[in-house]
Model the fold of this input.
Amino acid sequence: MLKKFRDWLTSGVSTTSISETIPKKKVSQRVHLSQSHLILDDGSMFDITIGEDQDIETLLAIQTACYNGETPWNASALHHELKRNTNALYIVIRQLTRPVAFIGAWLVEKEAHITNVAVAPEFQQKGIATWMIQELERISIAEDMDILSLEVRISNTKAQRLYRQLGFADGKVKRFYYSNDQEDALEMSKQLVKSVVTNLEG
Ligand SMILES: CC(C)(COP(=O)(O)OP(=O)(O)OC[C@H]1O[C@@H](n2cnc3c(N)ncnc32)[C@H](O)[C@@H]1OP(=O)(O)O)[C@@H](O)C(=O)NCCC(=O)NCCS
Done:
């Protein structure tokens, strides 16, 4: 999920041409969460916020826990995402001050593209990623997006299974997609459908 971001940063696209394709107000300032707390079946409670610059340490801690001590999105990339990228949206989950999970996405034109989703190991298999993806889906529909997409490592069958359960379909395989180890990526996407309210009395 990282390559698009690197390509974009290094593409030499001028600020002017980017600003022509993006809305004036930041997505993160425009959207609203459906709830500020998440309570799981076991009664554990979590705080949910829209990501801001002050969340960088939290996002780094979650990645370190999820990716064997590595941070695919480092502090400067996250700073750019949270402070400057007007199309970026992060949802951050904590338990009191404890970093738990986050999802990041870019909402560009009609496509919401998930750039990262990570849940700290001790909080996995509890439905937290499911909730975050469904919340992002709800927000994306409200933002008039047509499609929710992502790339996932071809070896990450656990994440792929979850995405399929949530209605994502397999797309193309992108050969040698990840620059650190040349692993292939699988594209996955989901068409977003606005629910239509019909007036049966009419
Ligand atoms: C992939 C990842 C984000 C999933 O997060 P998660 O919070 O564990 O996901 P969920 O709990 O929503 O779903 C995982 C599984 O638990 C199940 N589940 C959901 N709620 C549950 C509950 N209350 N009790 C038990 N299981 C539950 C889901 O049905 C799903 O089942 P599956 O294993 O058959 O697919 C997480 O494993 C992770 O962070 N991995 C490392 C980083 C990564 O690979 N990110 C993806 C990059 S593309």
Remarks:
- Confidence is low (pLDDT under 50) at residues 9-16.
- The pocket of coenzyme A is lined by residues 1, 41, 66, 117-119, 124-130, 152, 156, 158-159, 161-162, 165 (CB under 6 Å).
